[in-house]
What we know:
It is a single chain. This protein is of the alpha+beta class and 115 residues long. The chain has helices at residues 3-9, 19-25, 83-91, and strands at 40-45, 56-61, 66-70, 73-78, 95-104, 109-114. The protein has a 6-stranded antiparallel beta barrel with strand order 1-4-3-2-5-6. A hairpin with a 4-residue loop joins strand 5 and strand 6 (109-114). The model has no long low-confidence stretch (mean pLDDT 86).
Amino acid sequence: MGIEFLTRTRTTIRKHIDRKRVELATPDLFTQQPTDQPRCAMISLKKGAAVKEGDRLIIELSKTAITVSHGNNVVGVYDNPSPDVLTNLSSSGGTAGGIVRRIMKLSGKAEVSFC
C-alpha cells in the first residue's frame, strides 16, 4: 500500500450548498418584519395616572377635547390633534383604540399608537 494507492482511493471533499437550508434562511412574506410604524400621538397624562408600556387605551372624541381612558378611568388628554386625526375619529364613531409605546416620566407624557 503505497502513497499513490492511498491518494487514489481516499474520498474527495465535495463542497455543496444545502438548498433546503438556504430556502429556510431566505426571508419571505411571513418572516419579514414590517417597517411601517403606526401613527403615534403625545398624550398628556393626569397626575397619578397608572399606565405602563403595552397597556391598551380607549381614545374618545368629545365636544371639547380628545380624552384617553384606561378602563373606566380617564388617564390623559390628547394635545393639539391634527385635523386628519379629528376627521378619522369622527368618522369612526368617535372612539379608537390605542397602545402605550413609551412613557416620559419627567414630562408627564406618553406616546400612544393608534390601532
